[in-house]
Predict the 3D structure of the following.
Amino acid sequence: MEEEIIKNNYTDAQKSRIFDQEFMPHINAMYNFAYRLTLDRDDAKDLLQDTYLKAYRFIDSFQEGTNAKAWLFRILKNSFINDYRKKSKEPAKVDYQEVETYYNSEDVDRQITPDLRVESLSNMIGDEISNALNALDVDFRTVIILCDLEGFKYEEMAKILDIPIGTVRSRLHRARNLLKEKLSEYAKSMGYKTA
Amino acid sequence: MNDPSKMKHDCPNQKDCLQLLQAILDGEATKEQKEHFMKEHLDSCMPCYQNYHLEVAIRDLLKKKCTREAPQELIDSIKKQIEQNLRA
């Protein structure tokens, strides 16, 4: 949780109202985020439950009128890192810096510059895009979910992820290149011309 | 769309343009950037025109295919635990 927060002293009725009106409306988006992070239905359920209970426990540090969705997403992301990332079935965490440096290089950008076409995307009526998204490293996956699925602004993403806004921008750009690369592989394997 | 035969087929700034058009779609570009790019550049530059439509198509596909709803029993269980907490 944030260091300098104003502690409210909500009554039970207020807590109940905040929980129902501010927190519960985001439950589907939160479940989807939990699932996309853990890639496991049972882990996603546990993570979602833990997050909502935590949100309730810390409800006095939630400021009414502020962005509840961003507040909840941040708790979920932190719970994932602290409690699930270690035991998740994902391969050991890749060194961020290494990945970012690698994908930052001009070479990679040039290689990736999309040879993917809109027409081949319209043929992806199955799980191709979902699989492509899930195949990305969790940090790249996360920014795409936050931005493209949930519509968070860069500044909100920076707060949710505790990273500078410039890193949000560059990570997002790279994540999208990688996603296109994956989609392009699918398109090729489906036999569609990509260029 | 403008006459494709009159469009440029090479964009010298494709990488920067891609970043800019992503910022536009993310709602993070200024009004001036947006107007300039959408009105001046997009209709005359084939690679950027294609990139723009590709970005839009990927976002649509993501929204259509990569969301899922929380199971009802999970929602009920969370609500129940909170109610118990309130009574405690």
In short: Chain A has two domains: 12-84, 96-189.
